[in-house]
């Protein structure tokens, strides 16, 4: 009697799964690099602030993990290609890519300079496509791999005064959904992790008064129902779960939101 082939037998998974994390100098990216390393992945950290990445990599090595750092500017195609070549040379074939880099600055849509708007879209959306083009063809050839897009809840609930960021994340999720269909049957999984409000360096360079105005407008439109924010580690744990579920399972979309505080009843 023939027994059905299990998912684990059908989709062979290597024991060594090198992982790339972009935007790894702080926040969700740094936390993700640490979480993946703790789960046994050799990690390659990419960002423009390589000195910050080196601090994260040192923490990985101190804990017994393997980490390398290469400069990365996702708005520069040559930089992306050099990064992909460098990390592959250091760690071997990349099995996991976490596309996390992004930027946001406040502004009213009709007042934001179009060049700034375009730069932010380039980083948040086109930069992710450059990363896909650099790593996914090799994954398809090997018939395995995980590519995770770190999105934001602005992709489904736009927030005022974050026009380019909202537009970029809406576009990012559209691209990710199309990629999921294009990759079906290849052995490569494309997933979206969609965080809600999270403490990170993003927004810390905003003018204090401008930031307060933006937050007040979020409350006005019901976009900040409670004051709790998540730690970056919460999102990092979700990403680690997504890439380490057994083969034969695909976590297409995972939303991660801060839990509301307990209420007196």
Your description of this structure?
One of its GO terms (molecular function) is oxidoreductase activity. Belongs to the short-chain dehydrogenases/reductases (SDR) family. Keywords: Oxidoreductase. It comes from Nocardioides lianchengensis. This is NADP-dependent 3-hydroxy acid dehydrogenase YdfG. It is a single chain. This protein has 265 residues and is α/β, with parallel strands linked by helices. The chain has a single domain, classed as Rossmann fold (3-Layer(aba) Sandwich). Helices cover 45% and strands 14% of the residues. It has eight helices and seven strands. A seven-stranded parallel β-sheet has the order 3-2-1-4-5-6-7, with helices on both faces. Helix 5 links the parallel strand 4 and strand 5. The longest helix is centred in the middle third of the chain and has 29 residues. The protein is globular.
Q: Strand arrangement, largest sheet?
A: 3-2-1-4-5-6-7
The total domain count is 1
Q: What is the CATH architecture assignment?
A: 3-Layer(aba) Sandwich
The helix-strand sequence is: HEHEHEHEHEHEHHE
Instruction: Tell me how many strands there are.
Output: 7
Strand percent estimate: 5-15%
Number of helical elements: 8
Helix coverage percent of residues? 40-55%
Distance between the termini: 60 Å
Q: So what's the CATH class?
A: Alpha Beta
CATH topology: Rossmann fold
């Amino acid at each position: 009697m023939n027994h059905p082939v299990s998912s684990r037998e059908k989709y062979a998974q290597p024991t060594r799964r090198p992982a790339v994390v972009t935007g790894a100098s702080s926040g969700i990216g740094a936390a993700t690099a640490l979480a993946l390393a703790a789960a046994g992945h050799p990690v390659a950290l990419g960002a423009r602030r390589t000195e910050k990445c080196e601090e994260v990599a040192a923490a990985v090595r101190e804990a017994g993990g393997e980490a390398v750092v290469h400069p990365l500017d996702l708005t520069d195609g040559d930089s992306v290609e050099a990064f992909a070549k460098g990390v592959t040379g250091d760690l071997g074939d990349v099995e996991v890519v976490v596309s996390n880099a992004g930027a946001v600055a406040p502004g009213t849509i009709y007042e934001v300079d179009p060049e700034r708007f375009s730069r932010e879209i380039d980083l948040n959306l086109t930069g992710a496509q450059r990363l896909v083009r650099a790593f996914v063809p090799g994954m398809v050839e090997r018939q395995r791999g995980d590519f995770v897009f770190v999105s934001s809840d602005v992709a489904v609930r736009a927030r005022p005064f974050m026009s380019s960021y909202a537009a970029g994340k809406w576009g990012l999720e559209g691209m990710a959904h199309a990629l999921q269909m294009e990759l079906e049957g290849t052995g490569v999984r494309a997933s979206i992790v969609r965080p809600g409000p999270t403490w990170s360096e993003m927004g810390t360079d905003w003018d204090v008064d401008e930031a307060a105005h933006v937050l007040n407008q979020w409350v006005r439109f019901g976009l900040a129902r409670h004051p709790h924010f998540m730690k970056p580690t919460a999102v990092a744990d979700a990403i680690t779960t997504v890439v380490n579920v057994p083969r034969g399972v695909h976590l297409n979309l995972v939303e991660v939101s801060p839990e509301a505080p307990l209420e007196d009843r």
